[in-house]
Here is the input.
Amino acid sequence: MRARLAVFASGAGTHAQALIEACRDGRLAAEIVLVLSDRPEAPALDRARAAGVPSLCVARRAGESRSAYDRRLLRAVLDARADFVVLAGFMRLLGRSFVQALPWRVLNIHPSLLPAFPGLDAPARALAHGVRYTGCTVHFVDEGMDSGPIIHQAVVPVRPDDTVETLTARIKAAEYPALLQALQWAVAGRLRVEGRRVVILDELEGMGT
Ligand code: GAR
Here is the structure.
């Protein structure tokens, strides 16, 4: 049976698009059952509509508590009967009740080599810090900010003439295959969390040992 994925996106939604296409052409044994955004004007929602994928805006209401908002997000995931939630540019921190209701079922893609540069503007901060290499991280979401167990990473060099824009674009290009790989493992049931570490089952066999 194909896994059911909900994709949360606040902005452009190029990851949501890439995942819709990966499911459609068989690279990912899954189905996108929901694209959800916290912003009604997010292009991610337009992309989902254009692709015929269910889409939903769940914006935080004025004065709404975070836990009440989290409950509405969780309700959307449960209604869609999603097996996994993929945070792909979802610019909100999810609270304990949401994360605990979906243990190791929520994945996030972040544009740095965590634990360096969690939070906002990671490529700009990597550039300002002068690191020679940065990259992207796919991790399980826990209650902290970009702090959950790491599933996969890709390294990207920082060039001397990089701007925030060029570096962000190079990181983003590395994100698509990294997220796809992590999700292929996840939907195949190959990921197990042991403490802070994620074990990829059968990885040793795949390396010819
Ligand atoms: C991605 O680059 C992702 O790493 C980043 O938002 C972008 C979403 O792209 N996420 C974060 O910065 C989370 N802290 P998209 O809207 O084109 O899919």
The mean pLDDT is 96.
